[in-house]
């Protein structure tokens, strides 16, 4: 669990707090179809789905993963068959399904709202205060998301956005409170392409978790799919040479002081807009 998220919720946060003050003995939890399905405590390996097209999340720190988790919003439109270019209608522009989630040590926040907390649009907190509408992945934790009836395609500039709850005290972008993760994409859930993540110093190009989120549908009028105003971390498929992606995998950078808190993932350039 991210101490910063917890302390914000309690009104205690007054600056960066090191998550390594947490007791690290908590066992990792793997989530499948709902938060009530718990696996991996005590190092017991959960079964993994080897079915075609079903991704498996990377092993999280101290836990094991259950693939095939599903929940949240139903499919929108008609999903084209893999390899097909036709659409039967508009597809989802935000993640609609958690394929798998493996939460590392130090996790906990947001599990009571899993999987819906990471599905649909973001609930941004603006430049100077992170949102609490998040799921903490834990140290080295990973999650795989899918978009029913849709896919990300390569277009001009950013093709999709990953929304965390980074914030910059005083609005100073260079002093951002970042909780970093790596991002990978896949068309079939088997072969993955990773964006190079420059995690050693600001700017953290290619990483997720360092741009504040401004868009919050229902709270403001900012377009959550407009990279110029929505906030969040932009990713361009051209950077990894991938023309189309149906799955996004986000993995917390293990061994860092703080853990990645996922809010949402949205498609800017969609196969079925």
Structure characterization notes:
It is a single chain. With 273 residues, the protein is mainly β. Helix content is 3%, strand content 18%. It is built from one helix and 14 strands, in the order H-E-E-E-E-E-E-E-E-E-E-E-E-E-E. It has a seven-stranded antiparallel sheet with strand order 2-1-3-5-12-8-9, with no helix packed on it. Strands 10-7-14 form a three-stranded antiparallel sheet, with no helix packed on it. A two-stranded antiparallel ribbon has the order 4-13. It is globular. The model is unreliable at 5-30, 32-64 and 66-81 (pLDDT under 50).
> Overall pLDDT, averaged?
78
Low-confidence stretches: 5-30, 32-64, 66-81
Give the N-to-C terminal Cα separation: 35 Å
Q: Using the alpha-carbon principal axes, give the shape.
A: globular
Give the helix level as a range of percent: under 10%
Q: Major sheet: size, sense and barrel closure?
A: 7 strands, antiparallel
> Beta-strand percentage?
15-25%
From the helix content, strand content and strand pairing, which structural class follows?
A: mainly beta
Rg from Cα: 17 Å
SSE order, one letter for each helix or strand: HEEEEEEEEEEEEEE
The order of strands across the largest sheet is: 2-1-3-5-12-8-9
Strand tally is 14
- Tally the helices: 1
SSE layout:
Elements: H1 3-10, E1 29-31, E2 38-39, E3 97-103, E4 135-136, E5 142-146, E6 152-153, E7 160-163, E8 181-186, E9 193-194, E10 233-235, E11 244-245, E12 247-252, E13 261-262, E14 264-267
Antiparallel strand pairs: 1-2, 1-3, 3-5, 4-13, 5-12, 6-11, 7-10, 7-14, 8-9, 8-12
């Amino acid at each position: 669990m991210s101490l910063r998220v917890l302390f914000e919720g309690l009104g205690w946060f007054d600056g960066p707090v090191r998550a390594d003050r947490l007791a690290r003995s908590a066992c990792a939890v793997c989530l499948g179809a709902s938060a009530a399905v718990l696996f991996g405590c005590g190092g017991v390996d959960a079964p993994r789905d080897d079915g075609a097209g079903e991704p498996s999340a990377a092993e999280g720190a101290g836990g094991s993963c259950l693939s095939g988790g599903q929940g949240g919003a139903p499919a929108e439109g008609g999903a084209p068959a893999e390899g097909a270019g036709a659409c039967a209608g508009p597809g989802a522009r935000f993640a609609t399904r958690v394929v798998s989630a493996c939460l590392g040590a130090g996790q906990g926040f947001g599990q009571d709202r899993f999987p819906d907390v990471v599905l649909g649009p973001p609930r941004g907190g603006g430049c100077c205060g992170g949102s609490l509408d998040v799921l903490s992945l834990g140290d080295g934790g990973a999650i795989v998301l899918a978009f029913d009836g849709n896919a990300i395609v390569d277009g001009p500039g950013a093709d999709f956005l990953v929304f965390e709850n980074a914030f910059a005290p005083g609005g100073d972008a260079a002093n951002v409170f970042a909780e970093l993760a790596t991002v990978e994409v896949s068309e079939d859930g088997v072969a993955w392409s990773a964006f190079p993540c420059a995690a050693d110093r600001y700017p953290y190009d290619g990483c997720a978790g360092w741009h504040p989120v401004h868009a919050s549908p229902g709270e403001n009028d900012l377009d959550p799919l407009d990279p110029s105003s929505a906030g969040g971390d932009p990713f361009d498929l051209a950077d990894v040479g991938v023309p189309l992606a149906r799955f996004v995998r986000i993995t917390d950078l293990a061994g860092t002081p703080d853990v990645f808190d996922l809010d949402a993932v949205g498609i800017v350039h969609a196969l079925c807009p």
